[in-house]
Amino acid sequence: MSARLRPIDTVDPAELHRVLLWAHARSGSADRTFTAQRVADRVRVSAVDMGVALDALAVVGLLRSHHTRVGLTIYFRHRLVDLGGVEQCRPGTAAISRRELWAAISSAWQRAGAASTDDIAAGLDAPAGRVDRTWLLLRLATWTAAKLLVLTSGPAWALTARGLDQHEQIRRERPNDPQVWAAIAAEQAHRHPHRGLNLGAVADRLGAPTPWLHLWADEAVEAGLLTRTDGGLLPSAGGWRRVDDFVELPPGRDGGAVARAGRAGPGCASGPGPAGAAGVPR
Length: 282
Hints:
Blueprint: H1 13-25, E1 34-35, H2 36-43, H3 47-59, E2 63-67, E3 73-77, E4 89-90, E5 96-97, H4 98-112, H5 117-124, E6 130-131, H6 133-145, E7 149-152, E8 156-159, H7 161-172, H8 177-187, H9 199-206, H10 210-222, E9 226-229, E10 232-235, H11 237-244, E11 258-259
Parallel strand pairs: 4-6
Antiparallel strand pairs: 1-3, 2-3, 5-11, 7-8, 9-10
């Protein structure tokens, strides 16, 4: 019995990165080419969806593609970096929730009608560290394959009707605990014993009204996870353990509340990308 295929938007970017490097290394051809089917089989997603994702990665320069005489598209590595430590990059230094990523994409998209990778990354960069640009491009490519985004000229990214519906659904809901603690981890890079949490910055990061964060904080105080002081709200010992849950975690799924920290290679600040391509630092 064949394994059930996963939705491509739930594939962890760090996992996809490892598989792409594996496909490159294990290729039997002299020029190290591989097919979408080979990658799709490894991560258990539709080959059609994976082909869309790899096409997007070719547009932004992480891969290159070539069409054979029989109509098969083959791919090979271009500016996809090797795996390496990303301790100073997000999501390694602070996990990125689906809600936060949607907030960064939609904010950049609403300003210009299409969002460059640089603009999206700026919304995810935080006191805890800059977002790993390779991780971000891999995530945007899989969301494009899931028809949540479309890659436009530039290149830049725009929301589809399906993506807008998902974003609006998330935006209408109050942030949940994993989303808020991950955003606090991003904003509270250092444990200041007398500097309270900036709930406004956390709300902006999650695309949520600040009063919702105050309601969440009231509940966290009641649960003993936050303490009210003259300097503002501070995490208790239990609260800091919640923050630590979203820092330097092993790779995990990205389809739920939070994309756990994965090692998707170096390039927090500049990342790979074709020379002269707008919006592709990564």
